Amino acid sequence: MNKQEMKRLLALVAAGELSPEEAAAQVDAPDFADLGFARVDTRRQLRCGVTEVVYGEGKTAAQVTAICQALAEEGQPRVLVTRLAAEKARAVQEALPQALYWPDSRLLLTQPLPQPDGKGAIVVVCAGTSDLPVAEEAAITAEALGNKVERVYDAGVAGIHRLFSSADVLAQARVVIAVAGMEGALPSVVAGMVPCPVLAVPTSVGYGASLGGVAALLAMLNSCASGISVVNIDNGFGAAFQASLINHL
Amino acid sequence: MNKQEMKRLLALVAAGELSPEEAAAQVDAPDFADLGFARVDTRRQLRCGVTEVVYGEGKTAAQVTAICQALAEEGQPRVLVTRLAAEKARAVQEALPQALYWPDSRLLLTQPLPQPDGKGAIVVVCAGTSDLPVAEEAAITAEALGNKVERVYDAGVAGIHRLFSSADVLAQARVVIAVAGMEGALPSVVAGMVPCPVLAVPTSVGYGASLGGVAALLAMLNSCASGISVVNIDNGFGAAFQASLINHL
Amino acid sequence: MNKQEMKRLLALVAAGELSPEEAAAQVDAPDFADLGFARVDTRRQLRCGVTEVVYGEGKTAAQVTAICQALAEEGQPRVLVTRLAAEKARAVQEALPQALYWPDSRLLLTQPLPQPDGKGAIVVVCAGTSDLPVAEEAAITAEALGNKVERVYDAGVAGIHRLFSSADVLAQARVVIAVAGMEGALPSVVAGMVPCPVLAVPTSVGYGASLGGVAALLAMLNSCASGISVVNIDNGFGAAFQASLINHL
Amino acid sequence: MNKQEMKRLLALVAAGELSPEEAAAQVDAPDFADLGFARVDTRRQLRCGVTEVVYGEGKTAAQVTAICQALAEEGQPRVLVTRLAAEKARAVQEALPQALYWPDSRLLLTQPLPQPDGKGAIVVVCAGTSDLPVAEEAAITAEALGNKVERVYDAGVAGIHRLFSSADVLAQARVVIAVAGMEGALPSVVAGMVPCPVLAVPTSVGYGASLGGVAALLAMLNSCASGISVVNIDNGFGAAFQASLINHL
Amino acid sequence: MNKQEMKRLLALVAAGELSPEEAAAQVDAPDFADLGFARVDTRRQLRCGVTEVVYGEGKTAAQVTAICQALAEEGQPRVLVTRLAAEKARAVQEALPQALYWPDSRLLLTQPLPQPDGKGAIVVVCAGTSDLPVAEEAAITAEALGNKVERVYDAGVAGIHRLFSSADVLAQARVVIAVAGMEGALPSVVAGMVPCPVLAVPTSVGYGASLGGVAALLAMLNSCASGISVVNIDNGFGAAFQASLINHL
Amino acid sequence: MNKQEMKRLLALVAAGELSPEEAAAQVDAPDFADLGFARVDTRRQLRCGVTEVVYGEGKTAAQVTAICQALAEEGQPRVLVTRLAAEKARAVQEALPQALYWPDSRLLLTQPLPQPDGKGAIVVVCAGTSDLPVAEEAAITAEALGNKVERVYDAGVAGIHRLFSSADVLAQARVVIAVAGMEGALPSVVAGMVPCPVLAVPTSVGYGASLGGVAALLAMLNSCASGISVVNIDNGFGAAFQASLINHL
Amino acid sequence: MNKQEMKRLLALVAAGELSPEEAAAQVDAPDFADLGFARVDTRRQLRCGVTEVVYGEGKTAAQVTAICQALAEEGQPRVLVTRLAAEKARAVQEALPQALYWPDSRLLLTQPLPQPDGKGAIVVVCAGTSDLPVAEEAAITAEALGNKVERVYDAGVAGIHRLFSSADVLAQARVVIAVAGMEGALPSVVAGMVPCPVLAVPTSVGYGASLGGVAALLAMLNSCASGISVVNIDNGFGAAFQASLINHL
Amino acid sequence: MNKQEMKRLLALVAAGELSPEEAAAQVDAPDFADLGFARVDTRRQLRCGVTEVVYGEGKTAAQVTAICQALAEEGQPRVLVTRLAAEKARAVQEALPQALYWPDSRLLLTQPLPQPDGKGAIVVVCAGTSDLPVAEEAAITAEALGNKVERVYDAGVAGIHRLFSSADVLAQARVVIAVAGMEGALPSVVAGMVPCPVLAVPTSVGYGASLGGVAALLAMLNSCASGISVVNIDNGFGAAFQASLINHL
Predict the structure, then answer these.
(1) Which terminal residue of chain F has fewer beta carbons within 10 Å of its beta carbon, N or C?
(2) Best residue in D188, D204, D210 to probe E by mutation, most E CBs within 10 Å?
């Protein structure tokens, strides 16, 4: 346990979020839980403020379950799993019956959604109905990390009054997550409307020269508007994670 | 001279735009003027409705001058030259003193601008001040081809009220040319506002992941709005040429 | 309802295409129909001249049906749906029995094809038999939007006399849609033959270095012929929409 | 002036940052200052919280000067200009003698740096000495927007103890801006060390397969660490702008 | 048999690894075994020090079996087959019952693993659990070629203490193979920790802008750390083969 | 029928390959057979020396059959069909029982292979066993077009003595077709050994950074050896067609 | 000297092109002339039928001169140098006063052009005036290698009658070299007109999405016409070299 | 100073390469020398076995000099600087008069070349004369790091006997560095000839579809030969560094 981790541990004790006994247990615990196929980063919560999130793709249901259990044993029972196929999710839910699963966004959470403790609202706005799975990945991730979320869906720039009609909602955002495929223009327009940070999520919605979302990604990186940063294609999770960090500052 | 060309020639005579003598001369003329280094397409006006336009890049001033003179000899004295460097333009102007030159857009026209004879107005809208050279290439080309042109400049989507403030101008367009670099979002928004065709021109304005205008090009090709078609990067000429065809229908 | 929309509404009333009562109903109607998963742009007809077209990919049959019904309720019963898989189409047709479906081009239209009201003919020319699905998407879309369509199929440049044999048909076009995969040369040749605008549609027909249609797309963007603009790969719909706007000017 | 802008204006009056007279002047002012070549977005400060920043590339010194003066006339005398070449900067400084210029990062600010009013510190960490111009663009932009900035330079992952030796500085950050070229690994390591958002800036430092910074950009977009979002290659400004938004929440 | 091959043959006889009779047989043998569909390079062991390895993809089980038998007949009974699908492996195992098969890494070895005869240990370190198939391809290949292998798995840079906790293992390496997908940062960090060569293996783990592993590949090629060279995406075999060459020097 | 076609027709009569009656029939025949979905180029044999070849991909079995029958009716009964899936081939063979089909290379020929009438031999050399389908597409196409073919298979550059052992075969070639995937080095080595033209065929064999054959394609286009030209990835047919033209000169 | 080389040497003696003494000298000569910085392949003429051609780019004038002299000493005084800058050419001409230099195509030949000894004519056809430097590189190379050359310039597909007017010239070709930039459509049309092989040369003429000639290259690789093979961008030399091989068969 | 570094320090003392006093000084020294613009990694020699190498591009002569001096003060006076422009080198040499500079390969070494202490020879083989600067960067770097180097230059695959004539030299290599541009085939052939590791260096030599060396890079990554790993384009230094590590094992 390094100095920064120790400081944060003490802060949690001071804030009453951790009993001295729990804190002492953490001090003695190993840096990570070695499962052979995985080294579970049990100290990420202290170091980065959030429990390790499990990337479900390329892992078996048994591996996912074991990692969630290892984290639970270290006192971190609420674990988020991303990109988990439905059949694997069912197997995990058998071992962890409390777990919730959202098939469209392929998210699993090992415990019910927490009460929001972020400072404001995260607004998730998306361009088209086909972008919904990614938008929902963002929205549910944000809720799983303790944020209040507002949704503004199907508000693409080709009928821009649909976006303007939600100006009130956008105005109350502490962070906006803007999700769009095709030409990816939505974040540029949104960032010109709001005084808060905009996290842009390109999606793979489109065909031909959309190049699997690369067109939208490039558009967002080249936005003429200020206040935008970008995550990987279809990475609703990544945008929500950072939005949550911002919303908890 | 093929059947279609003959039909159009007769139509011009019938409309009084060509005397029978002029028409007869064209019937006897060769299909093209062979200058050795170039085969000047003297019959393009009949075939495609517009005198051949000269691509200035990669040609010497002497070559450009000779082509313009060959077209003049075939009764087509108003010739547009695109992408002509300033020093070459000066040399051409010495041989053809009537010629006008616009240094920003690198256009040369061997005779004064004609009176507009298109049916409506072409509106050229551009996203930022840095896009002006391409926007002007479009605007002047359109004027050189006989169109009334309205300009709406620096109306990018990051401050979209600047675009909306010109809604009246846009509403009167028969065709809109939308010019933008960076994320290339402008045509999508414009196409959602107007009931006429939008020709989108990506520019190479930007840096890094703009990839020399490829980002804007991809965005425009993937627009979620209908009624958009696209030309090559920085090809203000190409958009104006097609806009003029449409405006003269 | 903004000023432009009001103007167009009044023009429709003046032209007898709308009764004062219908117009009044539209003035009072909301800007869009919010279905939760979609914000149906009921005012696009007024704003852009054409009812919203539904992008079928990534939507469920129930979503498509609901959007079509929402538009019908706003007095726009003829709705075009693009890229709709056959099994979804069947489900939509059960709810909307009048709907027509074309399996090759994956188009659905909720009512019979309208009488043509465009000013001239749209000629759809394609390079090879394998390009037919895209060419048909263009042709049927154009018909669904009220245009007379002529088809010239399998007229690729490797046997160019096949194209020249249809010169008469091309000469009567008000707009040409040129569809080609592989090297995408067809639009360049066509644009050298006709005095009207050419809309170029690259297709994904080909293999290896065709890169899923990118080769044809690049070729069309770089055409040495004037009068061409380009839409996304396989986007027969987009070309036809633009052609229809032009044909109704 | 729309509803949101009005709300923010009143909030500024309530907070004593604006006198009622100044506020009234803003209500009556036009939406933007139209200079012909530019439509200066005088209302961006109200709408987005920050005065419009001027992109210097592709603009003449006279254009830059005129835009800065137009903003000053609307009560926004502190204007930041990015990517301004040295010779243009000299010309602007002649007209605006108070202006500061940083040649390495090509930034110009029309008035002295303000007192920091952000809530915490922004830490700018960069991988190598060759990344300094971009890192400085970020650092000075952040200072120009009212933030306290800490610099940790030449802390690339090939000698990772150099980064760890600054763990104390990083631990105090409210936002981290991580700047790196070549393989772009720095943000991934940093995000694993801190509990705050990390904004990643790829640079064009490198050669060959760095593809002008695309390699670093892709690496950052694909980071295995959570809490990262990315801006365009060499876009130190963009990262700092968003960091400042976050730091002022 | 060329001069170099003759020299090595004699060296093997001198070292007692080959009897004079066996050597004489090799001198008389043809340069390759021609099976019609394949020319089996029976002399590669002499020329390059290692028996030919069979690339299983695109070959039938019968072809693979025949090649292995041809090599056995030339006195090289231990043959490694890479990228062999499970059903093909079963068929090969029926013909060659001693053969071992590892389904995750799709490797088949026609005889049991040999005793290690390399000079030191090869350490295989990988970034995440999803990279295991490639890491195992490297580890088992190295073992099949006679090396002692140490595995350090799931030690990605987002929780870098997990890597540092294995510093002792890394310090004993004669060669390190570093396997990573996504942003591919692991080899840069490892190469900054060890004084031995690092062979970097990008994997196709990731999505969106990972471009099938190209992002990781580019990152590794652009590493700011010295002492790294790179093999093809997912090419665990290739890294292990070279590592084995180095370990046997 | 244009002048060149007439000349060639007369030459065939003079050579006794066509009776005056057959020639007269061709003079009167239409330029192409219009099947609605296809315009069969019945005059290509005269114009280009070879009957039209049918691209099977994207056509139904019924379309393929109809095209072959249309050509047969114009006196061209031996038709080659490329890239025809096995199930379609079976359907075609039911209608055209004489037709031969090669499943590996997906070629169909409506009549038995002809006697060779080319001037020399075409040598098809390929790098690895996995390249066989493409190599066979080349070899059988060449045979179908009347050429003697020699095959040199599995002669990749990693065991280059396997190639040198076939130097005698290569020395007798009038044209060489060199087929290779992966790094595509084979044509460079071959072209340095022979005094005849080399046609290079990149294949999609490989993985990761082979990018579906683009790596091999680029290598062949950049060969340091003279005397090489290149066809599309996996285009064994195209190389054989060109080789046959050369071999019949 | 290997067996093939010996055979060709004897054939030259039998044909009277080499005296027995000259042949004997070649038998004794070393395989290459080692100049330290270069290994001049003095035996390529025997092996591949043509003296080694010198690639001028990246070599000093002194190096070029020394290589030419080394070849002259081995009895091969006529050497072609490609891509040689004008100032280097002047220096070479001082040492080798007989040398000719063509500045547009950057070719140098150390002796006068030879008498044509190819069997027919090579026709070089190019699309536009801007393609002339590449077309001339092809034409002069072909002449330097002993071919009769016909030129058809500025015959692009946008005015296709200009190409058809040269049908007679094309009909007499034994090989056609088709040179085009931009969309690269010319070879497809030409290959549909002639019964001989077409070698396609893409040029870097164009801008924006021409991507430095990649658009034309891809178009040519994907040609729907048969009988085309392709060389590198701007590689007029390469096409002419292969055309000469074909023309001498 | 971590445990591994301490172990290596003690080993140096035990080997007599460091006096106890020198070792003690190092134990007390800081981890790096902080120059503000750079954190000089003074402990890399202990950690990775080689003194930090300075990347010259993007650094001023003053910065380079200061870094070299800082390393000298820590007892590491022999510093290699890569990619240093000639004018900067002159400035560095004024401050460090012992420094050697090689203009072609842009390398600077602050002290004379050391005596070789590697175990065998490193053979640098390159394909063409134009690749010499990169080959020399590799060769001189290897010498600067204490290796005996053999050079085999201009041995490209188009005249492969030139390579085979150096088979003796290659046979004595402990590591081979193979440098090639254009199609990058050389490493594949070399790796089929030798039993030692081959490090492949693609160069940017070529034009058009060589894409600045990407073609050669891809070829090398996809080599069909085993025993190859690859470094960045033009990265002769990187290959030599890795080769030196191997040669000192």
Answers:
(1) N
(2) D188
F128 plus F230 within the same structural domain: yes
Q: Could you give the number of structural domains in chain C?
A: 2
Is residue C9's pLDDT more than 80? no
3-class secondary structure, B111: coil
Q: Closest chain A residue to B220 measured between Cα atoms?
A: A183
Same domain, G204 and G90: no
B247's enclosing H/E stretch is helix B236-247
Element (H, E) at F134: helix F132-144
Which residues touch E194 (CB under 8 Å, ≥6 apart)? E170, E171, E173, E176, E227, H47, H48
Tell me what pLDDT residue H1 has. Answer: 66
Q: Are residues F228 and F134 in the same domain?
A: yes
Q: How far is residue E166's CA from residue E147's CA, in Å, rounded to a whole number?
A: 20
Q: What is the rounded CA–CA span in Å between residue H108 and residue A234?
A: 47
Measured distance CA(B54)–CA(A125) in Å, rounded: 48
Query: β-strand C100-102 against C107-109: which pairing, if any?
Result: antiparallel
In-domain check, residue F24: no
User: How many B/G residue pairs have CB atoms within 8 Å?
Assistant: 59
- The rounded Cα F65 to chain-centroid distance in angstroms is 20
**Contacting residues for F111 by C-beta, under 8 A, at least 6 apart:** F77, F78, F98, F99, F100
Side-chain half-sphere exposure of D241, counting CA atoms within 13 A: 29
Residue B76 DSSP SS3: coil
How many alpha carbons fall within 13 Å on the CB side of residue A59?
Answer: 24
Residue C16 lies in a domain: no
For the stretch E21-80, pLDDT in tens is 777 777 777 778 889 889 988 888 888 888 889 999 989 999 999 999 999 998 889 999
**Based on the domain organization, do G240 and G127 belong to the same domain?**
yes
Which one, of B81, B103, B1, B82, lies nearest residue B45 by Cα?
B1
Q: Is the pLDDT of residue F61 over 70?
A: yes
Residues of C in contact with F57 (CB under 8 A): 130, 207
Those residues whose C-beta lies under 8 Å from the C-beta of residue C2, and which sit 6 or more positions away, are B167
Residues 6+ apart with CB under 8 A from C135: C124, C126, C151, C153, C177, C179, C201, C236
Residue ranges of chain H whose CB lies within 8 Å of a chain G CB: 128-130, 132, 153-155, 158-159, 161-162, 165, 205, 207-210
**F159 contacts in chain E (CB < 8 Å):** 32, 39, 41, 43-44, 47, 52
Asked whether this complex has an ipTM greater than 0.85, the answer is yes
Residue F217 in contact with residue F179, Cβ under 8 Å?
no
Residue C136's domain is classified under what CATH number?
3.40.50.1970
Specify the pairing of strand H121-126 against strand H54-55: unpaired
The rounded mean pLDDT for chain H is: 92
- The answer to whether G226 contacts F50, with C-beta atoms less than 8 Å apart, is yes
From CA G101, how far away is CA G106, in angstroms rounded? 7
Residue B7 lies in a domain: no
**What is the per-residue pLDDT across A152-164, written as a single tens digit (0 to 9) for each?**
999 989 888 899 9
Instruction: Tell me the two tokens of residue B26.
Output: 């064209």
* Residue numbers of chain A with a pLDDT score lower than 50: none
Where in the sequence is the domain holding H38, given as residue range(s)? 31-109
To the nearest whole Å, the CA of D132 is away from the closest chain E CA by 15
Q: Which chains touch A (3 or more CB pairs under 8 A)?
A: B, C, D, E
First to last CA, chain A: 24
Cβ–Cβ below 8 Å for A48 and D226 = yes
> CA A184, A190, A195, A199: dihedral to nearest 10 degrees?
-30
Residue burial A41-60, b: 16+ Cβ < 10 Å; e: rest = bbbbbbbbbbbbbbbbebbe
User: Do F197 and G228 make contact, defined as CB atoms within 8 angstroms?
Assistant: no
